[in-house]
Amino acid sequence: PATLLNSVGSDHMTKTGAPTVATVLFGRLEHAGVSLPTTSDFYATANPGGVEGAAGGFHVGLLFRVDLQSGVASTTKRLISRSNGSSTGWVFQTTTTHATVAFTCYNGVGVLVSSPSYTIAATDVGKTLHLVGVHDGTLVRLYVNGAELGTGTAITGYTATAAATTLGSTTNALVSATVFAASGGHFVPTYAEIQANYATFKASKMLVAIAGKTEHLWSIKQDQSGSLLPTITDRVGSDNMTKNGAPTFVADSSASYAA
């Protein structure tokens, strides 16, 4: 842009010449206005790959942009890691009316068990929620903006998945541009760590890894031309996500670095 606005105060910076921008980092993925994504607009890991989960415990977190309080019943927003046609893995999704959001896991016999649901309020519209879903080995929990919702739902076991982790639109689905996750019993975060992670998010509007407990951390980036990158790299491990279709991007925060 010709002018940069100071998002805290009122100062501007005016562009002189042709400064080089290496990367612009965006922090959420959403549809603009009333335009809905299709079933083919998403990023996905290779199959197998991504966040498989484990019976001993794991956690998944994301930034979730609330663009409406309720909506068309056929439009379900979800972040999904699940084998097609089988009962494995986990799902982060809203209800078909967008009224609630929950973290759901398949237990040891392939039956879905959901955390307590968070009811999306009118005051949430236009805001980004920091959501963390936790399977701690005995309970499925949901944290919203650093605070646990309810006391969790009992679960026995877990059916891990070899499916790809998908970020974006699947079955007219939509989630944020950043997800962090870990698998394995020793990776379950504490309540204090979740609160600290939320405090970091409030300060930076970006998710960061929980030290020693996060195996995956994806952030979608846009290149200089304004195009979405064909592949996004896991900043913690080595998994990549490849773009499918045309996910819609809206900036939540950005940073640029001169070459």
Number of helices: 1
Distance between the termini: 17 Å
Average pLDDT works out at 76
DSSP strand count: 20
Strand percentage lies at 25-35%
Q: Percent of residues in helical segments?
A: under 10%
- For the CA atoms, what is the radius of gyration? 18 Å
Described by the principal axes of the CA atoms, the overall outline is: globular
Sheet with most strands: 9 strands, antiparallel
The succession of helices and strands, N to C, reads EEEEEEEEEEEEEEEEHEEEE
Q: Give me the secondary-structure category.
A: mainly beta
- Low-confidence parts lasting 5 or more residues at pLDDT below 50? 25-35, 72-76, 251-259
Overview of this protein structure:
The chain is mainly beta. It contains one helix and 20 strands. The protein has one helix at 191-204, and strands spanning 3-5, 12-14, 24-25, 42-45, 58-65, 78-81, 90-94, 100-106, 112-114, 118-119, 128-135, 139-144, 147-148, 153-154, 165-168, 178-183, 216-219, 221-222, 231-233, 240-244. The strands form four sheets. Strands 4, 6, 7, 8, 9, 10, 15, 19 and 20 form a nine-stranded antiparallel β-sheet that branches. It starts with a strand and ends in a 15-residue tail after the last strand.
